[in-house]
Amino acid sequence: MRRLRERIHCIRHRIRRVRPPPFGHACCVLFIISRLLSAQIEHIQTAARFLNDGQMAEAEAEARQALAGRNTRPLALAMLGTIRLQAGKYDESTNFLIQALALNPNLVGARTTLGDAYLLQGKPQLAERTFRQALKLDPSNFNARFDLVKVEASLHNFQESLEVARPILPRLLKSEESIQVLATDYGALGKKQELRGLIEHWQHLPSPNDESSLAFGELLNLYGMKDEGRNILDVEETRIAAHPSAALALRLGNDYLSLGVLTRAERNSQLALSLAPDCSACYQTLAQIAERQDSSEKALAYLMAARKQDPENPEILFDFGKLCLKRNLVDDALPALTKAVALKPDEDSYVYVLGSANVASGNLPNAAKLFGRLLEKHPRDAILNYAIGAVHYLEGKYTEAETSLKQSLAIEPDQIAASYYLALTYDAIGDDERAIPIFRNLVSVHPQHAPSYVKLGGVLVRRHQYDEARQDLERGVSLDPESVEAHYQLGVLLRRLGKTEESENQFAQSRKLESEQREQKDLHLRLLLPD
Predict the structure, then answer these.
(1) Sequence-separated contacts (24+) of 392-399 with Cβ below 8 Å
(2) CB atoms within 10 A of CB 474
(3) Full set of structural domains in the chain with CATH
């Protein structure tokens, strides 16, 4: 509204410049024309007053009264364009404003309003060109210059945005919106000193509103000034607590979450939920906080509550399905992820996790189809090549697995998973000469990767290289004491070495772990079943 009022002021300014011609010695015809012109100008002035008061229909009726006059028609069209813009009818607004400028190209206010209409239509390049044309006509026009500053920033032309801002910089340091734009420019360009300098100007603003203060704090956090950003958030927390707002409390909770300040994140998110008990976004944020607190059961409970409030929300479905998959709740993960993908089929991350859930459930053909679909879009993606290679390995398609895994490693050589599965592929076809060097390289470069020690030890047992095999298997057990395969393979080795009692102990441990893990899986699968 403030911008529209400024536009209206520009129109009024132009109206004041139009004066009826003198008629001291003119003929009666000129006197009549003068009276008619004055009446038409009065219609535009009245339209501006109505628009300023939010009386749209009355404003339009008055503006249309001025369409008949040749001298006032451009202003009337500009007024109609401004009315349509405020009503949210951007196409109609653009049409009126273009007509106005065709009749009078020098209407700077109309040209600036046209730029605003282009912005609201998602046409920043057209808006940029329009604002530049307005500035060419009137370099001192603040509205056109500031709008161009914002457009350049939105187009990531941050240096150009600052260059355009230079003539009005002192004025920009006195408003919330303009300081935020400057913060974006400085931050994106890595100008930390200039960004820090904005904080003092922000603190001297008369009374920035809570939403603007949060936005400024978020910008500081985004560009690495976390202490300064948190100081602003802490001030806002006190203000919001004094005058609670669900939307602002939730936003503050998310801001603290991004900083890793989980206690305050939870406190503000709970405040938001208490103010809006049906807030599904509040439950989502609380679920993310619970995950960060290593409380996945609590996170699941929050996501279940979020689903109850908003069962068709793809983001909630995805978060729920992903967490279920992480906890091995495959039967619960699959329907949620399937529905999320159906709602947002072009969201690659959703499709990828659904593919992973299909792997976990043993539906390898469907997983291959999902990963293949992504690979068509991103053929040079290392992770996707690895994923489909791993699926081919699990399907027993070892030639295809080798091709995909090698492609993945060619794109990104230092990958644990792709290297591991390539070694597994060679192991599966009995090609120890190629499997062993890969496993050995993995344990050398990634000495904490327990599965590689276990697999390498197993291959070496098969090749009767018992000393090295024992070292690798014992290392695997020490890194992952709950590995069923590590204990089993170590048991096999000890039996071959004639250490029967130690061997039986390892076999017993392997059976015990396998039983516990099976029971745990069954427990997980029962966790979300209805009572």
Answers:
(1) 392/368, 393/421, 393/424, 393/425, 393/428, 394/359, 394/364, 395/364, 395/365, 395/368, 396/428, 398/425, 398/428, 398/429
(2) 15
(3) 1-170 (1.25.40.10), 443-531 (1.25.40.10)
**Bigger pLDDT: 176 or 38?**
176
Name residue 143's amino acid: N
**The predicted structure's pLDDT at residue 54:** 87
pLDDT > 50? residue 462: yes
How many whole angstroms separate alpha carbon 165 and alpha carbon 36?
Answer: 43
The per-type count for the chain, helices as H runs and strands as E runs, is: 30, 0
Mean pLDDT of 471-488: 96
Among candidates 60, 67, 25, which has minimal Cα distance to 46? Answer: 60
Q: How confident is the model at residue 63 (pLDDT cuts 50, 70, 90)?
A: confident
Looking at residue 206, the DSSP 8-state letter turns out to be: S
- How many percent of the chain have pLDDT more than 70? 90
What is the residue-averaged pLDDT of the chain? 89
Q: Pick the closest to residue 470 from 481, 454, 484, 485 (CA basis).
A: 454
Q: What sign results for the dihedral spanned by CA atoms 108, 111, 115, 120?
A: positive
Q: Using CB atoms within 10 A of its CB, is residue 121 exposed (0-12), middle (13-18) or buried (19+)?
A: middle
Asked if 444 and 435 touch (Cβ cutoff 8 Å), the reply is no
The stretch 320-327 carries a mean pLDDT of: 94
Distance between CA atoms of 109 and 119, rounded to whole angstroms? 15
- Cα–Cα distance for residue pair 479/352, rounded to 1 Å: 29
Given a cut of 70, whether residue 127 has pLDDT beyond it is yes
Provide the sign of the torsion angle of the four alpha carbons 300, 450, 447, 455, taken in this order: negative
Encode 22-46: b = buried (16+ Cβ within 10 Å), e = exposed: eeeeeeeeeeebbeebeebbebbbb
pTM: 0.78
Q: What is the number of residues in the chain?
A: 531
| DSSP H/E element including 167 | none
The whole-angstrom distance between residue 136's C-alpha and the CA centroid of its chain comes to 37
> Are the C-beta atoms of residues 370 and 342 closer than 8 Å to each other?
no
| Cβ within 8 Å of residue 150, ≥6 positions away | 161, 181
Q: How confident is the model at residue 6 (pLDDT cuts 50, 70, 90)?
A: very low
pLDDT tier at 520, thresholds 50, 70, 90: low
Q: What are the two backbone dihedrals, phi and then psi, of residue 431, each rounded to the nearest 5 degrees?
A: -95, 75
Distance CA 168, CA 170 (A): 6
Residues in contact with 284: Cβ distance below 8 Å, sequence separation at least 6, in sequence order: 302, 303, 306, 315, 316, 319
